[in-house]
Write a structure and sequence with these properties.
The chain is built from 15 helices and 18 strands. By secondary structure, it is α+β, with helices and mostly antiparallel strands. The strands form two sheets. Strands 3, 4, 5, 6, 11, 12, 13, 14, 15 and 16 form a ten-stranded mixed sheet that branches. The chain starts with a helix and ends in a 6-residue tail after the last helix.
């Protein structure tokens, strides 16, 4: 992807079939869907790709055990089938992760075993291997840091784990390779209408202040937690669709889990699920569900949320983590569609996605979750094709390999026990290209931080191939150091700035 070339297309006065506002999971999924069906597609993002909710997930590609408890069978089934597709289409970014539900009575073992059997059933032939009961001794063996007192055994099952921001960048690159024009740091400032119908968008290039009017036959609002703001550009009296929930995650040292398997706390005192999972050589504990009144790009964790997660982790781990053990905290805001739930308890609001079309023709898609991004993209482009009577090919994203995907047998890849995190694995088939950068300039093989695998060559790659424009883009969304260790991130900033300057980027 080349940002300068993309901006030339934005300002070329072309008429596009589809203009998408928003570069998170939903917008990028829609852009890939549209481009692969032969539609002339442009996507504009205000900041960086996945800079809001889409980089701050629990890092799971899953059907949703919690949604199964709530009886949302349709959502769980759909998500499980999308999970299977992602394991094949992006095997360098998505892998199989085993979970253990610790049980402290015979009743709990039977209850959760029955629930996971239903989970297997909904997954169909993709549920390989099946969930199973495990003894207390086996639980202790695979989860050596779990408290043993009162342990009766456990139930083991699997879901998918992924790198959310890197999947977003991969979607952007894949859409670009299929003809879409993708551009970050290009805020949409308004909608263009003619005879009462939306026919385009106005935008500005954040890097030089240039403005442009983009004409399009269809405009899709895929701005996640900000969709209501865009809807009101079209219809100022429109009522808000969303309620907001904040979820935080704590990042702890590896010593608190010491396993390639994860722990799920199936029911907390407020009725939520808490995960304790290995991720990129660290341990992630999450998440909370705190109702908030408004959305922003950079939400802050609340003290009671941190205490909540530390308390529940301490209930299950032999060594209870404390504030001093926290290496990083990341916070995301969920866009929850109002209706069909208790507005006072956001944990009960729907995680299904919703598509609406207003009287001026603006299509809005919101809700949903990362696992179902592809289906959301297909559904909203189906709507655009119907509304605008586009001549388009059938959807092909269900079997489409993403950039970097290598040949696969279709079997889920399992994490290898005790294998250290290797960041170059995330590049898949392009790993060799990153390694060639190191061969051409050996200094680029040096690490950005002593205890983490990220190399200087990854900064160069992010600038040249992935449209990274700032230190934050590189440390938080191209590498993931910013989400893993705040101190190490601070120490790496100067190195990243030096590489950016050498590559001709304005340091910011």
């Amino acid at each position: 992807m080349n940002r300068d070339e993309a901006w030339l297309k934005v300002s070329s006065r072309e008429i596009w079939d589809v203009a998408i506002i928003g570069g998170g999971a939903t917008g990028l999924g829609a852009a890939l869907e549209a481009a692969t069906r032969g539609l002339k597609t442009i996507l504009l993002e205000k900041r960086d790709f996945a800079s809001a909710t889409s980089s701050r997930s629990t890092k799971l590609v899953h059907g949703g055990v919690r949604y199964l408890q709530q009886g949302n069978i349709t959502l769980v089934r759909e998500a499980l089938h999308e999970r299977a597709r992602l394991l094949v289409n992006a095997p360098h970014l998505v892998e199989q992760l085993f979970f253990v539900i610790p049980c402290y009575s015979v009743f709990e073992k039977l209850y959760y075993r029955a629930g996971m059997a239903a989970y297997d059933c909904l997954a169909g032939s993709q549920a390989r291997p099946k969930s199973r009961l495990v003894s207390a001794d086996e639980v202790e063996k695979v989860l050596p840091t779990l408290k043993r007192t009162g342990l009766s055994g456990g139930v083991e099952y699997w879901d998918g784990q992924f790198d959310d921001a890197r999947l977003a960048v991969t979607l952007a690159r894949t859409a670009s390779e299929h003809g879409a024009t993708i551009l970050n740091y290009t805020p949409v400032t308004g909608l263009v209408s003619n005879a009462g119908k939306i026919c385009g968008i106005e935008c500005v290039n954040s890097e030089n202040g240039d403005t442009a009017e983009v004409k399009a036959k269809c405009v899709i609002n895929a701005t996640g937690i900000f969709v209501d703001d865009v809807r009101k550009w079209s219809e100022p009296s429109a009522k808000n669709m969303l309620a907001f929930s904040q979820g935080i995650h704590l990042v702890l040292p590896k010593k608190f889990l010491q396993s390639h398997k994860a722990i799920i706390v199936p029911k907390t005192k407020d009725g939520r699920v808490v995960f304790i999972i290995p991720w990129h050589g660290s341990v992630v504990v999450g998440t909370t569900d705190t109702p908030i009144s408004s959305a922003c790009y950079d939400p802050e964790p609340q003290a009671q949320e941190i205490d909540f997660l530390l308390e529940h982790a301490g209930m299950y781990l032999r060594e209870a983590p404390t504030q001093s053990d926290i290496r990083a905290v990341f916070v995301g805001i969920r866009p929850l569609v109002r209706g069909g739930g208790d507005g006072n308890h956001t944990s009960k609001l729907s995680r299904d996605h919703s598509i609406t079309v207003d009287s001026h023709g603006l299509i809005t898609i919101t809700g949903g979750k990362w696992t179902t991004y592809r289906k959301m993209g297909q559904d909203v482009i189906d709507e655009a094709i119907k509304r605008c009577e586009f001549k388009a090919s059938l959807s092909r994203t269900a079997e489409l390999r993403l950039v970097g995907a290598m040949s696969s047998s279709g079997e889920p890849r399992m994490q290898a026990a005790d294998s250290p995190f290797d960041s170059l694995h995330l590049y898949g088939a392009e790993r060799k290209e990153v390694e060639k950068l190191i061969e051409s300039e050996p200094a680029w093989g040096e690490r950005l931080a002593a205890d983490y695998p990220y190399r200087k060559a990854e900064v160069v790659w992010a600038i040249r191939r992935e449209m990274a424009r700032s230190v934050e883009d590189i440390l938080f969304r191209r590498t993931r150091l910013g989400f893993l260790d705040e101190q190490a991130t601070q120490a790496a900033i100067k190195t990243v700035q030096q590489i950016m300057a050498a590559e001709g980027l304005r340091v910011r």
